[in-house]
Design brief:
This protein is of the alpha/beta class. It is 37% helix and 16% strand. The protein folds into two domains: 225 residues, Glycogen Phosphorylase B (Rossmann fold); 59 residues, no CATH class. Strand 5, helix 6 and strand 6 form a beta-alpha-beta unit. Helix 4 runs parallel beside helix 5 and helix 6 packs across helix 7. The N and C termini lie far apart (52 Å).
């Protein structure tokens, strides 16, 4: 059976949307003749934890966990946040940030490129160089964000001549919060350069949606393959049959950030609620995932 090295920052006990895709890849790769080996962070900064996901890990799976240094303790100290408070580096609130937060975002934007995991690139390259001198690997898959992981994989491909798939769960410079990074020209140029190098260096590039594929194809000048996000039927085995909610229910799953908050949508609901008391009593809104407090205030 061929072996594939999966480089993923998000891994159980991490929860949330970032872990699902690489976890399900690993769960089923053996069915296609590939033995996965996971390279991940030992002490990552995860917005959510979900130990139930560990039930999906294949028996006998090799997981390599390496310590990572991240700047979030410094960020908490600088901004007066508690040590236990989770920091989501990709989440910019609609609320007007204070001066310290503005300075912190400026530093993160211009001195941590491509992201706050950049300090993990060098030690990971060094460790994997040594690991690969004693272990045969037939392919690499890096999944981002964080896009620092693609730079680790790029080094491995070039130094060890191993085929590499770069998987984009989200875009890089086209992601919705990119414009909220207070980037100086040199930093913006560096992001675009690293993104283009990644897209042009990988043997294959995959992403989750056709629109994103077209955007990445324009940047990299080469085809991008779409592997859709889906669902695992085994997650629903032996579950009791549920009945439909009798209320008019609108559900959002995943991260609901400031740029995904649609004021016109809330205005339309407001108008319907005002015009129809029956509709008002039967309306329910469900948010599953990281939700910007300002968006809830808008609702």
């Amino acid at each position: 059976m061929k072996k594939v090295l999966i480089i993923s920052y998000y891994w159980p006990p991490a929860g949330g949307s970032g872990v699902q895709r690489p976890l399900k890849f690993v769960k089923y790769l053996r069915d296609f003749g590939w033995e996965p080996i996971v390279f991940t962070a030992n002490n990552g900064e995860y917005p959510e934890l979900d130990k139930t996901l560990e039930a999906d890990l294949p028996e006998g799976l090799e997981i390599i966990r390496r310590d990572i240094t991240e700047p979030y303790d410094l960020f908490r100290f600088f901004t007066g946040k508690k040590n236990t408070e989770k920091i989501d580096p990709n989440f910019f609130s609609k609320k007007k940030p204070g001066l310290l937060n503005k300075i912190a975002i400026f530093i993160r934007s211009n001195f941590f490129i491509p992201d706050a995991k950049m300090w993990w690139i060098k030690p990971s390259r060094k460790f994997l160089d040594q690991y690969l001198s004693n272990h045969k690997i037939d392919a690499i898959i890096s999944t981002g964000p964080p896009h620092s992981l693609h730079l680790i994989a790029k080094h491995i491909k070039e130094c060890h001549n191993i085929p590499w798939i770069a998987d984009f769960r989200d875009p890089w410079t086209n992601i919705d919060y990119f414009k909220d990074l207070t980037l100086l020209p040199f930093a913006k140029n560096k992001h675009h350069k690293l993104e283009r190098l990644t897209l042009q260096s990988a043997d294959k590039v995959t992403c989750v949606a056709p629109t994103w594929a077209k955007e990445l194809e324009i940047i990299g000048g080469r085809p991008v393959n779409v592997i859709y996000n889906g669902f695992d039927t085994s997650d629903f085995d032996n579950k009791e049959t549920t009945t439909l909610n009798e209320k008019f229910t609108i559900t959002h799953t995943g991260m609901y950030s400031k740029v995904r908050d649609h004021e016109i949508f809330w205005q339309a609901l407001r108008q319907l609620v005002d015009e129809d008391t029956k509709f008002a009593t039967h309306l329910e809104l469900h948010f599953f995932g990281k939700t910007d407090p300002a968006a809830l205030e808008s609702a």
